[in-house]
Specification:
Layout: H1 13-31, E1 37-44, E2 51-60, E3 63-70, H2 80-94, E4 99-105, H3 110-115, E5 119-125, E6 132-139
Parallel strand pairs: 3-4
Antiparallel strand pairs: 1-2, 2-3, 4-6, 5-6
Length: 140
């Protein structure tokens, strides 16, 4: 079979889906259908009720992935981030997860996560330039 390779700097969502579909089918054939649960804890402004931060993640394949953790600068150092992480860990345990994983940058919060029992299982140096991206996990 001969195929052509075409480069585009403006891929569409349809392009993404066309690439993802056979990959997803193969992954399911090897590991089974993933049960994905999306979760979030929202921080709301007491005046207007708008979401000003929180924790967003997913549970799949027996692991929780924390995709986003954001605490407004005015609330940092007051235990809000720690409380969000404690609640996420409780949910992960309740769901029977093996562990929790996340990624963070050297200029963000690796020390914060270490204090919560996370360890580095991978890193990408000089990403972005002059910094490191850490991949961390906590076994439950």
């Amino acid at each position: 079979m001969t195929v052509s390779i075409e480069f585009t700097q403006s891929p569409t969502e349809q392009h993404r889906e066309a690439i993802l579909q056979p990959l997803r089918a193969y992954n399911i054939s090897q590991a089974g259908e993933p049960r994905l649960q999306t979760i979030a804890w929202l921080l709301r402004d007491p005046q207007g009720g708008e979401v000003i931060g929180g924790l967003y993640g997913k549970i799949s394949a027996g692991w929780m992935f924390i995709e986003l953790l954001s605490v407004p600068e005015s609330l940092r150092g007051q235990g809000v981030g720690r409380q969000l992480m404690i609640q996420a860990e409780a949910q992960a345990r309740s769901a029977g997860c093996t562990g929790i994983w996340l990624d963070t940058f050297s200029f963000q919060a690796p020390a914060f996560y270490r204090k919560l029992g996370f360890t580095v299982f991978g890193e990408l140096a000089d990403y972005p330039s002059g910094h490191t991206r850490y991949f961390m996990r906590k076994l439950l």
